[in-house]
Amino acid sequence: MSGRRALSFGLALALALPTVAEAQSAGVSRYVLANGVRVLVRESGDAGVVAVSLQVRAGSRFETAETAGITNFLHRAMLRGTGRRSGEQLVEAAERLGGSLDASGEVEYAEVRGSALARHWEALLGLVAEVALTPTLPADEVEKERRLILSQIQTREDNPFPLAFDTLLRELYGPHPYGLRTLGRRESVAALGREDLLAHHRSIYRPDRLVLAISGRIERDRVRRTVEQLFGGLRIVAERPVDAAPAPAPTGVRRVLERPAQQAQILVGYLAPGLSEPDYPAVKVLAALLGGGMSGRLFVELRDNRGLAYQVTALSPPRAGPGFLVAYMGTARENIPAAEAGMLRELERIPPEGVGEEEVARAKAHVLGSLAMDRRTNARHAWYLAFYEVVGAGWEFPERYARAVEAVTAVDVRAVAQRYLRRPTTVVLEPR
Amino acid sequence: MLRLTRIAFALLVLLVFSACTVGRSIPVARAPAGPTRHVLPNGVRVVVERHEASDVVALQLWVQAGGRDETASELGLAHYLEHMLFKGTATRPGGFIDREVEGVGGRMNAGTSLDYTYYHLLLPARRALVGIDILSDISVNASLDDGQLEREKRVVLEEMRLGEDAPMRFLFRQLYEAVFDGHPYGRPVIGRADLIRVLTRDQLMRFYRQHYVPESFTLVVAGAVSPPEVLEAAARTFGRLPRSGVGRLPVSPVTGARPKNVELVRPGTYAYLGLAWPAPRLDHADTPAVDLLVAILGQSRSSRLTRSVRERLGLVNTISAGYSALEGAGVITLTAQLDPANLARAEAEILKELRRLREQGVGRAELERALTTEEARREFRAETAEGRAFVLGHAETIWRLEEELAYTDRLRSVTREQIHAAARRYLDSERFARVVFVPSSAR
Fold this sequence. Notes:
The complex is a heterodimer of chains A (432) and B (443). Chain A is 45% helix and 19% strand. Chain A is an alpha+beta fold.
């Protein structure tokens, strides 16, 4: 911590060096500061706003049962005070810019993010850098945050869907850290000390792990000067390879949880490829064919034709790997046998029967449409640029991915179904 | 926060979402031209705004029919009908969403509220005219097939169960019921299980014929489209519907609310506390002052309740204030999740903050922050075509478009004295509706 705090902004300016490597496409420019911080700038004049996403390669993927939740805890605490401002002053400063400032730990990354009216872009970048590089983690504020995080863990466990989902990921990943919650475990969050958080900050805020993305009504040359002042001084540390994670070991069991609830939850999950693997686009098409929108097989069969659910969908978020595919529905207690059998039937008939070209075309349109629709606000653009860069896929990944999705055929979808839809792991939450 | 939260709060007590689109950003600076508004000869209103941030077009059909238009025996009809409009028309059989919307990367969804129902399409801009055709078709030609109608009952019953498992949503429903006791605004938009089970096609058809008429429709189109082409397409489709000659009944007046106290035991670990007050309706001179008052009280991390009750005293896990301005009445809500042991003290501290606000009014700096936040929300909302279309359709349906367009200026003209007066008028620290969920584990 001390090393970072010593970096005054003036000093950082003095240390700023010319950048290496540069790329540019579709209003986006990429460059790397001399110390290794990657920067992505997207100029767009559509709305008078600006959004920043600073992502660091850290998060629950790199945690253990003992440290579970440390990245999120650290980031929540970082918002509670810096060398210059208290937590209250930070919040007020962001609101005066017409924006917001937030930070959290996720699965593949941790993020300090903010938004503001475009004219305040420079002040916004300053606030993001201040929170990321000079947090003080005041002891009493760390305790307040601990209490809030413990209450969020409890709330997840009290709510049927989050409880069932967290349970399924644990069963699916076994010892692999993708089975951990980003919030952590009650025991780990209770035991983590301020010193642990400070040490974690020192270990992850290294230039080679950082990506800064900014999108909005901005000028890239001016942004570049400011970014070099703010982040150029971050000291290079000797590279340390990322620890390999233990291999996932799905239990393949059917776990039943009993809880007081109105609705039963049924989740069926499988391991799936990571986002850089060649099978990934076809698995995304498979997920959309099953659970995308109102014309996915699960929706049509289980909701439209049989009235078994209001919510029914399939999830397969991007993971560096291995990913997962989870089918989900909520239903009445008495429908559990029919709903679960119906869902498994829809999943298990694909490998032997295959799928039609027409529904593959519809599913592809859905995947591509979702991607395009999700990347419309400046905040989402900044997130996309930073996320794919920080996980190592490269910021232009979505364009490559879109081309790969377009090339997926019904034969590909059946092949990935045969490869991945085997040995389901199931969690059923039964209302008591 | 302000306007958007006000709308979002209304969305909390309603429901239904289900269903995507193709777009590529064109990084071009854009001069906001503002919407154009036309009324077709049969009364259908058409609002069009060019929005060129992407080549996605948002098309929305707004209908002046919602939960408040139901009689006591019709509870849930407006929402049920909304579900059924996705099932096909005479010339457009079921599965049209698959073929015409999702098959081209688009999305369709809808929402039912107390004052309105709206249907929402997102499509590649070149498909805008197809979208207008879909909306005009479902607006009067839905088949309401008997078999599908029966099957959908189970779906809506599931939706009901889902709502009861979500504590905050359930808390809002209970608060509305307490504040609008006996008034249509106090009834659940989703209906009641016993009424849904016996609902018939005849009932639904009667409601459809009565409320889905040209005079109650607004078509909103925001996107990279040509307004004259949109208008022409609207005239060719919506313009051909026969006028009904019947107007909507006004909202029945909300009579003076009595202080009401509701306590329910629910599963879980934490307690939920909700307090609510009757507040000005959308079309009221005090609305902007109340909007700012509620923002300062509890809509951001720097607002008073968050700072004092959550951060300084540590009595709650979450706390927020909301203002929902409906067409005929409004409601201010304060909601918190907390440890059941803190219930009494948290409520006392919340009321202490209210008294301080009533006695001393608001500060210059916090007012300025609330205003800046509102200015920013406007810009952020304009980032997507559907965000913009929602605001325009909402205003045209239950308010007036020009009021909406001038709203930020009205907020800017609100004085600290007016906010202070609104606090005294609306935030009575002794008379209010109170709903508490006590966790079963605390008993």
